[in-house]
User: Fold these one by one.
Assistant:
Number 1:
Amino acid sequence: MEGRDAVRARFVAPRPSTSAVAEFHRTYAGLQVRLVETARPVAWLGGATRGFAVETFAPARIFSLARTGQIHTIHGPVEIEPLGEAVLLGTMPLQDARPAIEASLNRFARAAVYESWLANAQERALDKALCVADRLPTPAGLTLGDLLPFAAPVG
């Protein structure tokens, strides 16, 4: 781990509330989920190797795999074994969906903590910066790749 990932690893988000999990289940009932097993822990399974991958949080290719296969992510290749067909999140009992929902909500919470930390770090750095003609850079926010790293361009 290096750079942004190393910094993010230091942040711990509080466990999502019961009401937040229930609201996610209702709001995103139309998202696909699929039970999978991976060869190594992955963020989109909450750091586990087995669980329900949630559409938009997990790599899209997971939902079309017919059998065990390898997908490429920005963190390297990952071997995935589908353990069932994709279903809609809303068709799953909330209790069964809870770990996948908590992993998804945790990702957003950690990104929010990181964004706040990053903005503060940039402001502190700019207070000490010397720039040509006093044109200081503007602190930047998160990109889509920050929230959904598997969607970031590879190369």
Note: The chain is about 35% helix and 20% strand.
Number 2:
Amino acid sequence: MKPRPELLAAYQATTYYVQLPDRKVAIRIGEPTPELTPEMIAHEVGSWAFITACNPFSEELPAKENERRLDKLASELTERGLEFFPGEGIGDSGAWPCERSYLVLGLNLEEASALGREHGQYAIIFGRFNKPAQLVWCNE
């Protein structure tokens, strides 16, 4: 799928927040996030992914359905023994509702993309140690 320009713009005009045990970190596509470095070192990982299960294929769902989908994602992450932290994506314009998400440590790009696909997402945010956060389309 070639991303629609408005969808690409929406992802790029969003701040992705993660709540770590001792601080809240803001992630922006194309920018490095050195604030995640201590957590990555502590968990001995070189990558992370910011993933949601809410509003699959950018179709807004009722809050209860999004909660059910997030619970399923959290259960899957727990079963796989992955370390993850709660987060949310908040668009700059305020036109799209805040989307609860998770920052997952230690997934490689293929695993993260597959997880996004499994949960009906067009894209995920992916990062590596000391590199800018990147938007990754799940179907590529």
Note: Residues 31 and 113 are 20 Å apart (CA to CA).
Number 3:
Amino acid sequence: MFDRGDGDLWRQISETITDEISRGVLPPGQRLPASTALAARFGVHQHTVLKAVSHLQAEGVLRVERGRGTFVAERPIAFQIGARTWFEQNLLESNHAPARRVLSVVEMAAPHALAETLRIQPGDALCVVTLLGEADGVPIYLGRDHFPVERLPGIGDYFRSFGSEPTDRIVFSSLFRQFGVDDFRRRDVRVRARPPSTSEVHHLRMTMNVPILETIVTLVDRVDRPLAQGLAAYCSDRVELAMSL
């Protein structure tokens, strides 16, 4: 129990938790006790504990998942963004288990900007697939990929065949081989930081004060024909993006 005469009780709690993390008492990924239990442990009000947790979250020491609790932050996963470096490769090389979950598959008419990027006509059919990417069961990115249906007929049914459970069988190299594409690459990548949307907060189990790293990528085949445009929103306290030039 801390000295109640000290006006910086939350700092003492922060230092204690940080020390326990550094000594391995609280390992990466460990879920902390509820704030009520921590308040009882330290003999303080619950709001004092919440202030300490908020401070450690801002410092990247803890991460808060909506509806699940507070966890010791793991070291961010380094994602190499190159012409031919992919989700599964990044995670496996970092000793993490990759998985994807299909959230939705819908068709829409291509708006002008996407039609221009994908070299199709405005109004042509697009298959839009929303995927949740996970590492060791922890969500790290929410993606929306746009595929030209005329070039990849049956692409929607391909994704629907996986159901809605996480799977390691959604691999884009295997996907494109199903449609006769034996080689593909990233042609261009744009990256920006922005606040998360309500949907991203929900699916990524994050909080509103953690920024999103968004990538916008165009995939092309060996003759530079566009195959997809993908937008991926990464939780910035779980992923570091590195460019391979």
Note: The CA atoms of residues 30 and 225 lie 46 Å apart.
Number 4:
Amino acid sequence: MYQIDAFTTERFRGNPAAVCLLDSWVDDTILQNIAAENNLAETAFVVSGETFHELRWFTPEIEIDLCGHATLAAAHALRTCAGRSEQEMLFHTKSGELSVRCSDDLYTLNFPSRPAVPVDAPEALLRGLGKAPVETLKSRDFLAVYEREQDVAGICPDYSALMELDCLGIIVTAPGNDADIVSRFFAPGAGIPEDPVTGSSHCTLIPYWSARTGKQKLSARQLSRRGGELFCEDMGERVNIVGRAVMYLKGEIFL
């Protein structure tokens, strides 16, 4: 097992993910127990073939359908620790085929776009965020849009209220001061009160902000305590999310 800090070049920043490289799949109960024991936002499990890699992601509570930072971490582990040299890694996942292009220390994740549609803000969302957004949308996650970076930074969420919502997570976002966009991501129902840096949320953020600003390329910063940087591109039905990663830990699991 490897623990990797994703969307950063500094240890103890970005989003930590565990990556377990397996020879073959084991029972799902074991996978979930490992993820719960790690108690990180996600643990990625990989079974590699000659031309592609099977990839699954688990939070401490559930298996999820898409995770950006743990995909980046998986590519970094395969490249730096498992001797994989392909410039483009192909992953078979619950969200279809994903690719990660490797160039020097940069990893470009090609993910499906998940545009959100406008909705009325549920009472639990307003109660959970404590401040009404100027716009509310929904795809897999709720997207709450605010006017200023300070609005996003100042949110003190009521996690019990947010757990009442029918979604995986809640994205809060605004224009940034020194980046095009800023965001935070809360997923208490999945065992992740606040995620440090969330790749999958940008599958919704990128199409929204690209349409609003007219920019195809966007710089993004996540305003968690650890913080992280992402460089994004709207590709229509797909999005590119670019980041870096750094190894923190190598270890063995005894079952």
Note: The mean pLDDT is 97.
